[in-house]
Design goal:
The protein is an alpha+beta fold and 258 residues long. Helix content is 46%, strand content 17%. It is built from six helices and seven strands. Helix 1 packs across helix 6. The radius of gyration is 36 Å and the shape is elongated. It starts with a helix and ends in a 7-residue tail after the last helix.
């Protein structure tokens, strides 16, 4: 019975076992920091020069009276003010008071080159304002998509409003994402890993594993035990025969050879 159950269960879910093995091996093989694209960007440690903060914040608040969350930072090689008005983000040059956001294409390319860890040339630049591509969250829009000339197609996404790198992508990331989807059996477009297909297949896999353990016992372990018992019984029987022979020899008269 367990043989039939195991056979039909493995016929049903065997392909998914292969998918689990391949996708799991891919996800373990690659370092997760590389998949996240952390190696694509440089962590600059440039410090802000106070002497370049010549545009008074009083004028800034006169120009933008509803500005909130004001901060000072760097945009490549210049000091800038960053702040919010409602949900909109702004960048203003801290030296001249020039409004830099939304960023134009040339500034976005300069920021991407400044942050990119490689020496490859830029092959593609486009502003994404709606309908973000796969792997890019809509909360970052609008962003500049800047792709570099490399076989992995490394791409940096630069926020048009605050000038920061909001996402990094390359071909191995996209492949990793598909591997993860196949691994959790997300064959639709649902980000929830708790789907019914995964639950049923995992349940069948557990039954297949239990039936396989039963088969292992009856087909492998039990024959070994029976074989050892037979050898033990044969050994005991031979010992009894030897003991009987010795008893018979002791009972014979001295010098009687039969």
């Amino acid at each position: 019975m367990s043989h039939k159950v195991h056979r039909w269960l493995m016929l049903l879910i065997g392909a998914q076992f292969v998918i689990w093995s391949v996708t799991g091996a891919y996800m373990v093989f690659f370092d997760i920091d590389y998949i996240h694209g952390n190696s694509l960007v440089i962590s600059h440690q440039n410090s802000i020069k106070p002497e370049n903060l010549t545009y008074p914040t009083e004028k800034l608040f006169q120009q933008y009276p509803k500005a909130k969350n004001l901060s000072v930072g760097l945009l490549v090689d210049r000091e800038v003010y960053r702040f919010n008005i409602a949900k909109q983000q702004y960048i203003v040059d801290a030296k001249t008071g020039e409004t830099l956001s939304p960023l134009n294409q040339s500034r976005a390319m300069a920021i991407a080159k400044h942050n990119y860890s490689g020496n490859d040339n830029i092959t593609h630049t486009v502003l994404i304002s709606s309908n973000p591509s796969f792997g890019l969250s809509a909360r970052h829009l609008p962003v500049w998509e800047v792709e570099f000339d490399h076989f992995t197609s490394p791409t940096l996404y630069i926020s048009a409003n605050n000038g920061k790198v909001v996402s990094k992508r390359h071909q191995f990331w996209y492949l990793f994402d598909w591997m993860f989807r196949f691994h959790i059996m997300d064959y639709g477009d649902d980000e929830d890993t708790s789907n019914w297909l995964l639950f049923f297949i995992a349940s069948f896999a557990l039954l297949a594993a239990l039936s396989g353990l039963m088969l292992t016992y009856f087909k492998v372990i039990k024959p070994i035990i029976n074989s050892r018992n037979k050898r033990g019984n044969k050994r005991k029987k031979n010992q009894r025969y030897n003991q009987l022979d010795k008893q018979r020899e002791n009972q014979l008269p001295n010098g009687d050879n039969r």
